[in-house]
Here is the input.
Amino acid sequence: MKRQLYTADHEAFRSTVRTFLEKEVLPHYEQWEKDGIVSREVWLAAGRQGLLGLAVDEEYGGGGNPDFRYSAVLAEEFTRAGAPGLAIGLHNDIIGPYLTSLGTEEQKRRWLPGFCSGETVTAIAMTEPGAGSDLQGIRTTAEDHGDHWILNGSKTFISNGILADLVVVVARTTPEGGAHGLSLLVVERGAEGFERGRNLDKIGQKSQDTAELFFTDVRVPKENLLGELNGAFVHLMTNLAQERLAIAVAGIAGAEHLLEITTRYVKEREAFGRPLARLQHVRFEIAEMATECAVTRTFVDRCVTEHNDGGLDAVHASMAKWWATELQKRVADRCLQLHGGYGYMSEFPVARAYTDGRIQTIYGGTTEIMKEIIGRSLLG
Here is the structure.
């Protein structure tokens, strides 16, 4: 069935994104995978192409267009290209809304122009060695010292951790327990006491720098408080629906792309004197995956429409996230199997998609947490 989600303008933007990938990303991607990090230059190129800050007001250098469908196009094309290492989605769709919706006028003028040009790469630091999705477990603290905060603690698994010039840190600003004494503090590159640990060695998405961050008596100016004091819990919950939808969009796009390349492969690859596609088992596998992808695509597209209209809630975002990413995981496994030994070779796209996509069911809230959110909404 023909998709109803996009207009001619979105498809024109898709062509721009594909050209950017072909020119600025794919020729360098193998080297970035070896280096464990993308270049600063590609962030600047993305800024010049207008791919950063799509929803940021034009007065700050952004695109001035809050239509999430443009972000969905970016997610789809980067996934299809097998290039998740350049974390534009994290920058635009996860961190961007914190800066635009919570930032003061002074903060916006200070941070957003670089955000949109690619000169300022961003990260959000929430996860700690002993606390993932459970905000109550956060131990990083910020003590009030009059005109500044003193920040102490550590974070881990921070995407863009090495490159980031601006890090939104979730810290405890009251001694009371629970999740409601947390605030968002923005730490800038070069702050004394702010150190980056090793670039973590992951099984996939190797060119996406993921790091440990350490804060030792870091002096954070009071004007770097983002949003309300002790209001981080509400701020984080407000933006999670978009984050999870963006992951779902990438999930179904990844599954569809794997299905496409595997369908071509089984038509060409022969076994026992005939193409694999002639075997009933293979046809059934392709039929099952195609059906699951079609059904999932319909739901995710509907969620994008609901989000654009301001109506997507946490429950349906959680449904989209867990279902689409678990489907991506299953399809990756089945498609690798259909490729046989070649599927295990790194030069085959299916192999990289298998390892790159495995994180999808974990970050942004694990599948188990998504089910808990849904279950609580239904059962209390």
